[in-house]
Amino acid sequence: GDEEEPTQMQFKVILLGDGSVGKTSTATRFTQGHFKRTYKQTIGLDFFIKRLVLPGEINVALQIWDIGGQSIGSKMISNYIYGADAIVLMYDITNYQSFRNLEDWMRLVRKVFSEGPMPHVALVANKCDLEHVRTVTKEKHNDFADENEFYSYSLSAKSGDNVRGTFHRLAADLAGVT
Ligand code: GDP
Q1: Ligand 1: which residues within 6 Å by Cβ?
Q2: What is the pLDDT of residues 48-91, one digit of tens each?
Q3: Is the pTM of this model over 0.90?
Q4: Partner of 157 for a Cys bridge, out of 26, 51, 60, 62, CB 3.0 to 4.6 A?
Q5: Which residues contact 141 (CB under 8 A, 6 or more apart)?
């Protein structure tokens, strides 16, 4: 018939960063809308699908891959990163080491994509509800984002602040919607 299915764009987004920066909490908050307090080291791999409708009735499905507490040394990480449309580099604003280690995470990403074009990379500062104990300054964040031409966001998985905004902006950038 003449009926057309609405086109559905799908993007693979992988959350990277040190253990306990809040990757699982952010993915859970965004996809299920709540914040889980208990900390469970993610053993395998979780992935969530979230469907969004962008301005212009553009339907986008984000496949959000969460490596949980897996370390950068895990042999499986490269396989997860492979084929990503977007990388979310997440750190905890109260943990300077988690920010510094993003250099190592980026090195791994560059290695995985050494043969092809780099995916979209977003630098995400989490735990913005803990502003009073912040150890990574906004200036450091902005410098790092500018030097690498990363998209830049800050949010709180705990309060929910800017979680939806971040993923909607990311989806719009991936879909080429301005
Ligand atoms: P992951 O290892 O990166 O997946 O981190 P988790 O999502 O498991 O979170 C690690 C710990 O940080 C848990 O105790 C969470 O409750 C806590 N956490 C995560 N996001 C936030 C946040 O935005 N603010 C605060 N205050 N704590 C958070």
Answers
A1: 19-25, 37, 39, 68-69, 126-127, 129-130, 156-158
A2: 889 999 998 999 999 999 887 888 998 889 988 999 999 999 99
A3: yes
A4: 26
A5: 99, 123, 125, 152, 154
